[in-house]
Structure formats: structure tokens, C-alpha cells
Design a protein that fits this description.
This is TonB-dependent receptor. It comes from Brumimicrobium salinarum. By secondary structure, the chain is mainly beta. The chain contains 8 helices and 54 strands. The strands form 10 sheets. It has a 22-stranded antiparallel beta barrel. It has a 5-stranded mixed beta sheet with strand order 10-16-17-14-15.
Length: 800
């Protein structure tokens, strides 16, 4: 009798346990977290934990238990079927995702098929597999963003013929662009930690309605790791540790992050540290890219030293550290508070393209380095869910950021070292609201206030006597402010047609005080007090579940900032750019037309054509200072130039994506980008735009089976002939190759790359690969630094 009772208890216990479903990835057999489980016959919605488990006892007896997660094909089962399958569910990754969740389009979660913009998204899995060394390299992984580099510690994206201060960065919804983002290349994106990313999105086209100034060519939105709560009485603990090594620059990187969550409190800690030695370029390519020497100080004399390895790009070494701490508190289902702290700092690093400059057959510079680049952000995010008259959801973000960068240069065999340091303190307040009006109307609106305080100093030091004196700063002391309000409406006209329209007004102010100690400017102050009205209208037509047509027309603007109005710098030998306080905002007018088509489960085609007109474009033009067209600058008689609203620019192009499901785990994916840019010159002629890159793209053949993923890919760029070069680029013999006539041009190039990831244990995986297998010597368009030669990468990840 006792045995029968015992067996009955065991049977009953097993039945209770059997109600806990385990959800696995069909390809890898790994548990899947955050799978949504629901039923039409019940109001409750459940989610799987990190072990892929969820207790479905509340759904017992139902016939339509639905399992959903973006990136996977949804599955529906009856309770009896689950019982027959031992409560183990396998979900297949979606080969072609039509309804991906994106947030960059209007700052709230949206289904991508409802968005009239083109949006490219990278998940944490994509980032982990491709092992980007920096956040700039992360953007290259998308295949839709071209990245220029003048030094290894950098990376300046080009999108649809625009770059730098005509593109916008956001981190966790906070604007990263500052009042000193320049028209030349910027490397601020490397302050972000690729290891700490939950996902990254690129929103293409003019987006000032939601994001304000600078969103002319697109928006790069980065979402960092979000603290997760526990769904039971036990703490939720999840984290990873990573060690990585790469041969092309002897990279040594370590990373650690951990999430600890309770029911109402959660926190995430992330730390990354990297050290990169001088980058070695490939063996086969233009000899113009080889600089087989570097400058070294010996007994108070600058000496040109031959390199043991002429393919090393010296100096390009640097190191970096990133820290992140987040704390989240949710007292109830209506309120969510999150505080985030971010810190990043690099070592000093050489701007390699300046070290290739020659003067009278000798190096022009003995030193040209960027000082440590520092970035710090404190952010408080407050989210409220409340179905009241004003909103259903409210999100308030308050942020404080500190930026510091510096430039250090010294001419060859000169004793004067010049250091110019810039710091920016930025405060921002964003209040965004979402309100559902009836069954078909979603209203989004918000307010924004930004203030930037710019501090800039210059110091000249005699390295022989160690005596320092004040010198001209790069910028005036200045304050830049922006106040904006927007409204954007999404209306579901039918089940097939969704319309969006929005309007924004932004008022911007700038006050700058110039120091005339070193230059005799005909002014001491500069003030701007102006506004910009922008808007957009677009629509999505879902012809059927496999075909989506997008059309969007929008405007954007970029208000002049401190860099535009107040900078003094040598853009190239014999030319000096001086301040011009009489500037107005640039305006862009953009049209997009796109189509996404899925044929069966075999092929997906995505095409987007666009045309953008930029008016009142800020461009460098010849200028005068006190009636003179040339001044003595840094010991050289230099042509005076200044930024002016003197041009009109046009950019048009095509973005294409093709995916073919070859079955049995094989997938072919290709992305291609073609853009043409033109800008008006002083004499009325037209020149190709500097930031419109040649055609470029990536083609990938991947294979996935269980715990193994392999990928062979090719990255490539077309040629830019001398006659197609921008007027501003033609004279840059330091960074471009020379054709048979001795003229500058950008050669075409390709790299073949092999990637691999294998999970050999429940908690351990190894990844890496071989990049640039054929050891090509190549240099992305407009870059002063060649890409890595043959590069072996090995990374070990421990998950817990």
C-alpha cells in the first residue's frame, strides 16, 4: 500500500512538473528566453526564463496555446499536443523577418512593416558573431553604412552621401551629437562599447521631425544592455565574460557584464578594456599606401627611422576602457525608473594620415596625436503607463554628458608643441508621449531641450625648456541651445494601409565670445537666434503578408553649431579656415520609395530608392579677413577660407538587399549601396560630393547547424576615378593612391573573410575567424588609414 501511495505521489509530482514547458531553438537546441506565451482563451501572457522554461498550468485544456518571439516563426499547440511532446517546444528562426520590432522611427516600439522609413537592425547575436573591435566596426557589419578612418582609434560613418554633423547618434535615446561635431570626420562613435549593446538600429533618411537638428542623412540608434527583473522569488542572474585576441594589431580585449534582478529592482554592470598595437596592412595592393618609416626623437633631434616591418602603420596604437552601470526600479506595473552611468576613455593615439604628410621631402610633423578622448553620461529615464486623457505611455529622459578631446601637434624638428583641448558639458531633457486615439489612430508627441557649454583652450610648450605659454584655442567660449516640440500621427486607414505624418518646430540659440589675442577678427561676439520648421508624411501599403511598399517624404535641418561658426584650423597645407558668424541653418528635402518582397520561404528582396536635396549647404569657400585673402598661419602663408551658406547639394541612390534560403542551414545574403552626390561650387559648376562614397556592399554565405555557425563573406568597394573625385579631395596625395597619370584616385577593393562560432559547452563558446584571407592592401574611400591585412581573431565567451 505504501508503495502504491508513493508511486501516486511521484506520478502527481511529475504531472505538475510536466506543465513547465521548455522552449528551444530548433537549429542550436539552445533555450530561448523571453518567448511570449498566450492564448485567445486566456488574458494572461507569460514569458520564458533564461532556461527557456515557463509554467503553462493556467492554459491547461486549451487548444490554442501560442508561442511568439520576434526573429522566430510563431508556433501554436493544444495542451494535449504539448503533453505528447513531453512539453518540449522547438522554434525555428525566421529566415525572412517582415515584422521586426524597431524603436528608432518614433522612439517607441513599432513593427518595421508599419514604418515608412528604411531601418537596418543589428541584434546582440549579430554583434557577437561578427566580433567588431569598435562600435564603428559594428556599424560596418550592417552592410548599409560606409565607415571612414583616419586613425585606428576612430571611425566616421557615411550614410546616403552625408557624414559627421549631418548624421545623428543616440545612445539609449539620448542625443550624442554636440555643438563641436564638425563637418570633417568625427570619431566619437568609438566611445560606445560594442560588447554592451542590446541592439543597434540605423534609420535612413531625413528624420528631424522626431530627432531635431543634424538628422539629415540618418540616425544611428544604440540600445545598451537593459536591466532585467526576476519573474519569481529567486534572483535573476545572467552575465558573460569574454576574452579576445586579434593578430593584425595584437588586440587584447577583455569584457565582463552581469545582470542581477529581483522583482522590483535590477542592475547591470559592464566593463570592457582593449589594447591595440600598431595596425598592419596587407601585402598586396597600391605601394602609395606604404609608409616604411616613422619619426622618433633621439638626443633632442627628430630622426626618420626605417621600420622593421614596412607594412605597420606607425603610429596607430591605442587603448580604451568602457564602464557602464545601470539600476532599474519598478514599484508597480505603471512605473519604471532607470538610472544609467556610462564612461569611456581612450589613450592618446596618432592621427595616422597626418604622419604621412611630407614637406620638402621630409615628414611635415614629428607629432600629430589626439589626446585621450573621454565621454561620460548620467541618465535618468522615467516611464509611466497610464491610460489618461494626455497619454497612454510617457517617457522622460534627463541626461548629463561630459566630452573631452584634444589635438597635439609639433612640426618636424621644431621645439614648439601645440595642444588644443576642447570640453563640452551637455544637458538634455526629453519628454515623449504616446496616446492611442480610437482603434486606428496612434499619436506621438514630445518636447526637447538641449544646452551645450563649450570650453576651449590652447597651450604652446617648448619641449626643450618645458616652458608653456597660452596659444590660440580651436573654438571660442560658447553656449549652444535647442528647444523643440513635435507631433507625429500614425493612422491605420485599412488593414493594408498605414499613414504617418508629423511636424516639428525647433528654436536654436548660440552665443560665442572670441579671443582676439592671437587673431585680429573684425568681431568679438557671434549670436544666433533662429528657428526651423520641419515635417514629413509617409505611408505603408501591405499588398499582402509577403509584400510591403513604402513611400516617405520628409524634411530635415541642421542648425549652425560652434564648430561651424567659430573654428580655426588648417584644412590642408596652405589653407586656413577662420570663423564666420553669419550663418543660417541647412535644409534637406528627401523622398524615399521602397519595396520588400518575400517569395515563399526562399527569397527576400528589399529595394529602396531615395533623392535628397540640401539647400543653404554649409561649405568651405574662399573668404577674406580684414580685406586680406591670405594670412600667416602657423608659419605658412595660407589662403583664407570660411564656412558659408553658399551651395546646394543633391544626393540620390539605391539600397538593395537580397536573401536566398538555400535550405539545410545555408543562407545567402547580400547588400549593395549605390549613391551619387553633387554640390554646387563658387563658379556655378558642380563637383562630386566629398561624403558620397563609391558603391559598396557585402555578400555573405552562412551555414548553421545545432551549435555551429559558419560564414564566408566578401566586403567590397568600387573605384572612384580622379575625374569623379570631389574638388576638396583631389589634392590629398597623402591618403589616396596615384593613377598612371600621377593623379589621386580611390582604387576598388575587396576582402574575403571567414567567421565561425561554436558552442562546445552549455556555458562556453568559441568564435573568431580569418579576415582578409588574401591579405589585400586596401584603404576605404576618404580614409587615411589602410584596413587590416590578414587577421586571425580568436574569442572565448563564458555565459552564466
Amino acid at each position: 500500500m505504501k508503495i502504491i501511495i508513493l508511486l501516486g505521489v511521484l506520478f502527481y509530482t511529475s504531472m505538475i512538473y510536466a506543465q513547465k514547458v521548455t522552449v528551444q531553438d530548433k537549429t542550436t537546441n539552445e533555450p530561448i528566453e523571453f518567448v511570449q506565451v498566450g492564448s485567445k482563451g486566456a488574458q494572461e501572457v507569460l514569458f520564458t526564463n533564461k532556461k527557456g522554461e515557463v509554467d503553462i498550468s493556467i492554459f491547461k485544456g486549451l487548444n490554442d496555446i501560442i508561442f511568439k518571439l520576434y526573429g522566430y516563426e510563431p508556433r501554436e499547440y493544444s495542451y494535449e499536443t504539448l503533453l505528447e511532446n513531453d512539453f518540449i517546444i522547438e522554434m525555428s528562426p525566421s529566415v525572412f523577418i517582415m515584422n521586426e520590432v524597431v524603436i528608432s522611427a518614433n522612439k517607441w516600439s513599432q513593427i518595421s512593416s508599419d514604418v515608412p522609413y528604411k531601418v537596418s537592425k543589428l541584434s546582440a547575436k549579430d554583434i557577437a558573431f561578427h566580433n567588431p573591435q569598435t562600435a564603428a566596426d559594428l556599424l560596418s557589419v550592417s552592410g548599409d553604412v560606409f565607415v571612414q578612418k583616419s586613425q585606428q582609434g576612430g571611425g566616421s560613418p557615411m550614410i546616403r552621401g552625408f557624414a559627421t554633423n549631418r548624421l545623428l547618434y543616440t545612445i539609449d535615446g539620448v542625443r550624442m551629437n554636440t555643438a563641436i561635431f564638425r563637418g570633417g570626420n568625427v570619431q566619437n562613435v568609438i566611445s560606445l562599447d560594442a560588447f554592451a549593446m542590446e541592439n543597434a538600429e540605423v534609420l535612413f533618411g531625413s528624420s528631424s521631425t522626431i530627432y531635431g537638428s543634424d538628422a539629415v542623412g540618418g540616425v544611428m540608434s544604440f540600445q545598451t544592455l537593459k536591466p532585467r527583473f526576476s519573474d519569481n522569488d529567486q534572483p535573476y542572474v545572467k552575465g558573460k565574460a569574454i576574452a579576445r585576441y586579434a593578430t593584425a594589431n595584437n588586440e587584447k580585449t577583455g569584457h565582463f557584464d552581469i545582470n542581477v534582478g529581483w522583482k522590483k529592482w535590477a542592475m547591470v554592470t559592464s566593463v570592457s578594456a582593449s589594447k591595440f598595437e600598431d595596425l598592419k596592412q596587407g601585402s598586396f595592393g597600391p605601394d602609395d599606401y606604404v609608409k616604411p618609416y616613422h619619426v622618433q626623437r633621439v638626443d633632442s633631434v627628430d630622426v626618420v627611422m626605417a621600420q622593421d616591418d614596412p607594412l605597420l602603420q606607425q603610429p596607430s596604437a591605442y587603448s580604451q576602457i568602457n564602464l557602464m552601470q545601470k539600476v532599474r526600479f519598478s514599484p508597480n506595473k505603471n512605473w519604471d525608473f532607470e538610472y544609467g552611468f556610462h564612461f569611456s576613455e581612450t589613450s592618446s593615439y596618432g592621427r595616422y594620415d597626418r604622419h604621412t604628410s611630407l614637406k620638402n621631402g621630409a615628414p611635415k610633423y614629428a607629432e600629430w596625436n589626439y589626446g585621450p578622448q573621454k565621454w561620460m553620461m548620467n541618465q535618468l529615464s522615467i516611464t509611466n503607463y497610464s491610460a489618461n486623457a494626455l497619454y497612454d505611455q510617457m517617457n522622460i529622459k534627463i541626461a548629463h554628458q561630459e566630452f573631452e578631446e584634444s589635438r597635439i601637434d609639433r612640426k618636424f624638428n621644431k621645439s614648439k608643441r601645440r595642444t588644443r583641448t576642447e570640453s563640452v558639458t551637455a544637458y538634455s531633457l526629453n519628454a515623449d508621449f504616446a496616446k492611442r486615439l480610437g482603434k486606428k489612430n496612434n499619436l506621438f508627441y514630445g518636447l526637447e531641450y538641449i544646452i551645450n557649454d563649450v570650453n576651449s583652450i590652447g597651450v604652446s610648450e617648448d619641449i626643450n625648456t618645458n616652458i608653456s605659454t597660452a596659444s590660440a584655442s580651436r573654438y571660442p567660449m560658447a553656449q549652444w541651445q535647442s528647444i523643440g516640440a513635435y507631433v507625429n500621427d500614425e493612422y491605420t486607414l485599412t488593414d493594408q494601409i498605414t499613414l504617418q505624418a508629423g511636424l516639428r518646430y525647433t528654436h536654436f540659440l548660440l552665443d560665442a565670445d572670441f579671443d582676439n589675442t592671437f587673431y585680429s577678427f573684425p568681431f568679438q561676439k557671434a549670436n544666433l537666434d533662429n528657428g526651423a520648421l520641419t515635417g514629413g508624411i509617409g505611408g505603408v501599403y501591405k499588398i499582402n503578408s509577403k509584400t510591403v511598399l513604402r513611400l516617405n517624404a520628409s524634411t530635415a535641418f541642421r542648425s549652425p553649431n560652434v564648430d561651424d561658426i567659430g573654428k580655426i584650423f588648417d584644412s590642408e597645407p596652405g589653407t586656413v579656415v577662420i570663423p564666420n558668424p553669419n550663418l543660417n541653418a541647412e535644409y534637406a528635402y528627401n523622398v524615399d520609395l521602397g519595396i520588400t518582397k518575400v517569395i515563399g520561404n526562399v527569397l527576400k528582396l528589399d529595394l529602396t530608392g531615395y533623392y535628397t536635396i540640401l539647400e543653404n549647404a554649409l561649405v568651405r569657400r574662399n573668404f577674406t579677413l580684414n580685406g586680406a585673402d591670405s594670412i600667416l598661419y602657423d608659419g605658412t602663408l595660407s589662403q583664407v577660407q570660411a564656412l558659408q551658406n553658399a551651395a546646394k547639394a543633391n544626393v540620390y541612390g539605391l539600397q538593395a538587399g537580397l536573401s536566398i534560403n538555400l535550405t539545410n542551414g545555408f543562407l545567402l545574403n547580400s547588400k549593395f549601396n549605390y549613391q551619387v552626390g553633387e554640390e554646387e561650387m563658387d563658379d556655378g559648376t558642380v563637383s562630386p560630393s566629398r561624403h558620397a562614397a563609391p558603391w559598396f556592399g557585402v555578400t555573405r554565405l552562412s551555414y548553421t547547424y545545432r551549435k555551429l555557425k559558419l560564414e564566408l563573406n566578401a566586403m567590397y568597394q568600387g573605384e572612384r576615378k580622379n575625374e569623379d573625385m570631389s574638388v576638396s579631395e583631389i589634392g590629398k596625395t597623402d591618403i589616396y593612391a596615384l593613377d598612371e597619370n600621377g593623379n589621386t584616385y580611390a582604387p576598388s577593393w575587396y576582402t574575403l573573410n571567414l567567421k565561425i562560432m561554436y558552442q562546445f559547452h552549455e556555458n562556453f563558446s568559441v568564435s573568431g575567424g580569418l579576415e582578409n584571407i588574401t591579405d589585400q592592401r586596401y584603404r576605404p574611400y576618404s580614409s587615411g588609414l589602410s584596413g587590416a591585412g590578414r587577421n586571425f581573431i580568436l574569442s572565448l565567451t563564458a555565459n552564466f
